[in-house]
Amino acid sequence: MTDERACGTAGVAVVMGADELPVVMPPDLRARLGELTGREVRAIPVDDGLGLLAGPVGLGGVDILVTGWGCPPLTKAVLETASRLRAVIHAAGSVKQLVTEAVWERRIVVSSAAEANAGPVADFTLAAIGLAAKGALSAAAAYADGGRLPAFRDRQGGDGRTVGVLGASRIGRRVIAGLRAATAGYRVLLYDPYATDEEAARLGTERVDRLADLCRASDIVTVHAPGTPDTYRLLDAEHLALIPDGGTVINTARGSIVDTESLERECRSGRLSAWLDVTDPEPLKKGHTLFRLPNVLVTPHIAGAQGSEGRRLGTYAVEEAGRWVRGEPLLGAVERESLERSA
């Protein structure tokens, strides 16, 4: 153990939303956190949005900060109250809204449980792909309207369908693996400007050079790119128009990647369907057209760890804190250089 990690009386603070805290980091996990780090663990539920400087909380004496949904950004002002802070372990996915330049300037180690959160998102996406391949939304709407079962020959299925994966992120890679293992016999295409042909081959997919080629060839397009300036409305009107009639767009990544107005027009015409767990804006205004269309399902950003799944995020963070104290490599380490093009 290095000197800076053997901090004597330093402690651990667990800071996340009041609703998330008992689910993600319940008492038994906090006890385990104390055992692994050899430190006193203090839980700080955030329920007023005022930040870490509100009231007598402060982070003096804290060297490990475990964060989650609801934790305010770690600004320079916040960090001034945390002179001993050396590691931030995020018990959730993206750290973009949490980590500021002040964190990197202080050379504070950052880790994320994004890998633990990736599993539920990939499972959700694969379920949506399977249902989309069967035309579940349109079939359910027709069934409700006429009460008749469609003829077998008219039903859709996964066999022979092409799924275009936009982004070889950790979730995108899991989705590709799931599609390759599925019995439906999907053809899987990948568009990711950072992926090589060799990487695509290892994943068992075909890489295409242009997003237009992916859209033109795919019955289902599933989005797994990070939300960055480069990906803002990447799936725009032009690209959506290339998806074949009867195609489906699935987005469990970031709402900003898809042009909402253009997608609404395509779905309103009945040409495309959509399964959206994220939107832009988020949430959509009450009564938005996408909520009312029979060929669209909008869910409230629930693809990631929810309910009892939240505990896996806490478990990951606890084990990660233990690794940091022992001087071992962090499995979820976040690097400043790669954060800009990550989720």
TrEMBL record:
Residues 158-303 form the D-isomer specific 2-hydroxyacid dehydrogenase NAD-binding domain. CDD domains: 2-Hacid_dh_8. InterPro entries: D-isomer_2-hydroxyacid_DH (IPR050223), D-isomer_DH_CS (IPR029753), D-isomer_DH_NAD-bd (IPR006140), NAD(P)-bd_dom_sf (IPR036291). GO terms for molecular function: glyoxylate reductase (NADPH) activity; hydroxypyruvate reductase [NAD(P)H] activity; NAD binding. GO terms for cellular component: cytosol. The keyword Oxidoreductase applies. Coiled coil: none annotated. Keywords: NAD, Oxidoreductase. This is Hydroxyacid dehydrogenase. It comes from Streptomyces telluris.
